[in-house]
Specification:
CATH architecture of the largest domain in chain A: 3-Layer(aba) Sandwich
Helix content of chain A: 40-55%
Distance between the termini of chain B: 36 Å
Oligomer: heterodimer
Helix content of chain B: 10-25%
Largest sheet of chain A: 2 strands, parallel
Structural class of chain B: alpha+beta
Distance between the termini of chain A: 26 Å
Largest interface: A-B, 82 and 49 residues
Strand order of the largest sheet of chain B: 2-1-10-9
CATH class of the largest domain in chain A: Alpha Beta
Number of strands of chain A: 4
Radius of gyration of chain A: 18 Å
CATH topology of the largest domain in chain A: Glutaredoxin
Order of helices and strands of chain B: EEEHEEEEEHEEHEEE
Number of helices of chain B: 3
Structural class of chain A: mainly alpha
Chain lengths: 223, 130
């Protein structure tokens, strides 16, 4: 997806930086990156520093940054939708209409990026960009500190204490799927998408998992 | 036992000591805050220190961190400390709309900074395997 966009736009003063929020590190990220055959920049962020600095709470989220280094669209969902929440969990299949709608949303997101790169469309004025910034509360700031402590202790082999800090981080920042899912994945690969994940998604109720960006082609998916 | 101090700049070590009392030199090296006659200073900003927070060239960094409203956590043994940035400071920094800079490695280990891309429109996007 990003390679296609980069190929089309690279001669138009455009760059993609894809950051893997991947506490397991390089060797976990590598096969995914190699499969994408990227010409753009792919970086590995074992401590989720980028998520913390930008107040990101899920993947994929994207920020549009202009030539001056100014955020013209703060973090928002980058082309993904909540159609996955309607899948049949027994067979793990999605209805054809939902598959099509999901694909259309991805195309709509890429169209919006193309329009921005070529004509500046959809870049938010400063006031609107500030409005769209994520909230950073003291609990969120503490969650990031605990997350880093938990990761470090895990690296030292102190699993029991690590788990306590990671769980507390997730509790303090309940909006962050990044923290919860990364911690679940560190417990065991697959846990980030397991039964506890689906239970947590279900408990969102009417709230979105992937909040739709304010761009053409996006609206909240009823679940 | 040496102490490990985690900041956004990574893990750094300080000599053993009581809780998070550090020498002024270690505090400066690890946090960027410098002990001066007027208090603890970073750049233009100086924060006066309440009585007892510094003595004999040592700083109670845990107390100072609380004093400036910044988050801090440590392991049960008090040998690993994690220091963060206050929510209000992070919020103010975001409100400038200047994209927060970072430096991270690619798969080959080469470091790249976001700020190297000034002059290009950049799509910064996250993903994960999990």
């Amino acid at each position: 997806m990003w390679q296609q966009l980069y190929s089309e736009l690279k001669s138009e003063n455009f760059m993609v930086v894809a950051v893997a929020e991947e506490s397991r590190g390089n060797e976990t990220a590598r096969p995914w990156i190699e499969q994408a055959k990227p010409e753009y920049l792919c970086l590995v962020d074992t401590e989720h520093l980028v998520a913390a600095r930008y107040g990101m709470v899920n993947v994929p989220q994207a920020v549009w940054i202009d030539e001056h280094g100014t955020m013209v669209r703060p973090p928002e969902t980058a082309g993904s939708t909540d159609h996955f929440r309607r899948m049949d969990l027994a067979t793990r299949t999605m209805a054809p209409d939902d598959m099509a709608a999901r694909l259309a949303a991805r195309q709509a997101y890429m169209d919006a990026v193309r329009a921005w790169v070529r004509t500046g469309t959809y870049a938010l004025p400063a006031d609107a960009a500030r409005e769209a910034l994520p909230e950073i509360t003291p609990d969120i700031a503490m969650a990031d500190v605990l997350f880093r402590l938990g990761l470090y202790l895990r690296g030292q082999g102190n699993m029991a204490e690590s788990a306590v800090h990671l769980a507390e981080a997730a509790r303090l920042h309940p909006e962050s799927w990044n923290i919860w899912r990364q911690a679940a994945d560190l417990d065991a690969i697959g846990n980030a998408g397991g039964a506890a994940f689906w239970q947590r998604v279900k408990s969102l109720g009417d709230r979105p998992y992937y909040p739709p960006p304010d761009l053409p082609g996006f609206k909240q998916v009823p679940v | 036992m040496t102490r490990t101090i985690l900041t956004e700049a990574g893990a750094q070590t300080a000599p053993s000591g009581d809780a998070l009392w550090l020498s002024a030199a270690d505090a400066l090296r690890i946090t960027g805050w410098e002990l001066k006659p007027e208090g603890m200073c970073r750049g233009e900003l100086c924060v006066p220190l309440p009585a007892g927070m510094a003595k004999d060239g040592q700083i109670d960094l845990a107390a100072f961190w609380g004093h400036i409203g910044a988050p801090l956590a440590h392991d049960a043994g008090g040998t690993v400390w994690s220091l963060g940035t206050a929510a209000s400071e992070r919020r103010q920094s975001l409100e400038t709309l200047e994209a927060p800079d970072f430096t991270l490695p690619d798969l080959a280990g080469a470091a790249h900074s976001l700020s190297d891309l000034r002059g290009k429109k950049t799509l910064l996007v996250t993903w994960a395997s999990w």
